[in-house]
Structures are given as structure tokens and as C-alpha cells.
């Protein structure tokens, strides 16, 4: 009998490899869970690692409405005052605040006060991102209320308008001031004339059409303090926030 007369069946072909799963809600939840644990640790290196992981995942390809656990945002806010962590922390905070549901959560864990306490020590580009996130948080009622109750809000925004070189940072500061002076309560933290001078000076430099519009609105509020306007939601769809490499 020929040795080739009996054919052994070939083993079945292995199934083709599955394609890598897309970035899903589950993967995002896992990312948030791991990062939250690292941010909750006492190790600054662990926290910094978590921020870089979040930055790589959220900033280049923003996810549609990445709903974040409040404790994660609390951990990010905690790192705003650390010199080596402020840059990635502001990038992550801004990326999270682009999703409207996260803004109330950020306000609830003290992000408004966290930005106020840390922004003066930040480099210009980092401070711009922090103010952009602050402006977004002020589009929700509780964020605007928290801002108006902060004693340093007005003097800090005046200082930022004078210190920041780029026009975007000045615009964010003017937007925040418009929220403050657009409230129902009288603002006594700084004389309106002093704020108006700072705004007028900021408008003399490089400024976009949006910035001039914001500045004109703010100057009008400062001169009509007896008839305050509510603009806490002004610019909601015109926030001007960008997520590029230089920013």
C-alpha cells in the first residue's frame, strides 16, 4: 500500500485575530479608574504618571462627553499647585470641562478655588488653559456662583490680564470678569474704575473680535453697575477653547 494512500485531515485554521477594540466607554472607565487610584496615592510620581496617561488619552482625541468620576477631577485639581504637574493637570482639566456634565462635578470638588489659588504661579500657557477651564466651569450656575463668592476672583483676573502675553488668556480673564459683574450681587472686591482701566489696557494690544466683544460688554457692565446683566452663559457656544499642541 502506498504510504500516501491514507490522508490525515489537516488541523483547522486558526480564526483570524480580532481587530483591536475601539476606544469605548468601558476602556474610558478603566482609564479613569486606574488614574483615580494613582491620583489618590501619596506619591507625586504616581499622580504625575496618571496625569500623563490621561493627557495622552484625552487631549489628542477628545472623547464625546467623557463623564468623569468626581474623585478623579478632585485628584487632577489637587495637582494644579504642583509646579511639575500644573501643565498636564490644566490640559486634563480643560479636556474634561469640554464635556458639559463634568463642569458641575469640577465645581463640586473645588476646581474654581483650585484654579484661583494656583493660577498666579503658573507659566503663561498653563495659566491660559486654567482660565479656559475656569470660563467653562462658569457656564453652569453653581460655577458662576462659586466664582462670584471668591474674594480673590476680581484682583486675580485683573492681574492675569496684565501678566499674560497672549490675547487668549486676556480674553478668558475678561469672560470670567463678565460673569462676576453680570451677577445680581454688588462686587466690592475692586473699584470698577480700576477694572475698567485694566480692560481698556488689554484691548489696546493684540485682540480677536471675540475679545473685543467681551471687553466692550464688560466695560458696559462696569459703567452700568446699577443695572447688572446676567451673562453667566454668554459665550457658551463661543468659548474659543482649543486643544492644540501649542496651547
UniProtKB/TrEMBL annotation:
<protein>
    <recommendedName>
        <fullName>U-box domain-containing protein</fullName>
    </recommendedName>
</protein>
<feature type="compositionally biased region" description="Pro residues">
    <location>
        <begin position="10"/>
        <end position="23"/>
    </location>
</feature>
<dbReference type="InterPro" id="IPR058678">
    <property type="entry name" value="ARM_PUB"/>
</dbReference>
<dbReference type="Pfam" id="PF25598">
    <property type="entry name" value="ARM_PUB"/>
</dbReference>
<feature type="region of interest" description="Disordered">
    <location>
        <begin position="1"/>
        <end position="23"/>
    </location>
</feature>
<feature type="domain" description="U-box">
    <location>
        <begin position="70"/>
        <end position="225"/>
    </location>
</feature>
Amino acid at each position: 500500500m502506498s504510504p500516501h494512500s491514507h490522508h490525515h485531515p489537516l488541523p483547522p485554521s486558526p480564526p483570524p485575530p480580532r481587530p483591536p477594540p475601539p476606544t469605548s466607554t468601558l476602556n474610558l472607565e478603566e482609564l479613569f479608574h486606574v488614574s483615580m487610584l494613582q491620583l489618590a496615592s501619596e506619591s507625586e510620581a504616581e499622580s504625575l504618571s496618571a496625569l500623563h496617561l490621561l493627557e495622552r488619552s484625552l487631549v489628542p482625541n477628545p472623547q464625546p462627553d467623557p463623564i468623569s468620576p468626581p474623585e478623579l477631577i478632585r485628584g487632577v485639581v489637587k495637582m494644579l499647585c504642583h509646579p511639575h504637574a500644573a501643565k498636564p493637570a490644566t490640559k486634563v482639566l480643560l479636556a474634561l470641562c469640554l464635556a458639559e456634565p463634568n463642569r458641575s462635578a469640577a465645581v463640586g470638588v473645588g476646581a474654581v478655588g483650585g484654579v484661583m489659588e494656583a493660577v498666579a504661579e503658573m507659566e503663561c500657557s498653563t495659566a491660559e488653559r486654567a482660565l479656559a477651564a475656569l470660563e467653562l466651569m462658569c457656564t453652569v450656575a453653581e460655577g458662576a456662583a462659586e466664582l462670584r463668592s471668591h474674594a480673590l476672583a476680581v484682583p486675580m483676573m485683573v492681574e492675569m490680564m496684565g501678566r499674560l502675553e497672549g490675547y487668549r488668556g486676556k480674553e478668558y480673564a475678561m469672560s470670567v470678569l463678565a460673569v462676576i459683574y453680570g451677577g445680581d450681587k454688588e462686587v466690592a472686591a475692586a473699584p470698577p474704575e480700576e477694572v475698567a482701566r485694566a480692560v481698556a489696557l488689554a484691548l489696546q494690544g493684540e485682540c480677536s473680535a471675540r475679545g473685543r466683544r467681551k471687553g466692550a460688554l464688560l466695560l458696559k457692565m462696569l459703567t452700568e453697575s446699577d443695572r447688572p446683566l446676567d451673562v453667566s452663559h454668554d459665550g457658551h457656544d463661543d468659548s474659543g477653547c482649543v486643544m492644540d499642541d501649542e496651547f
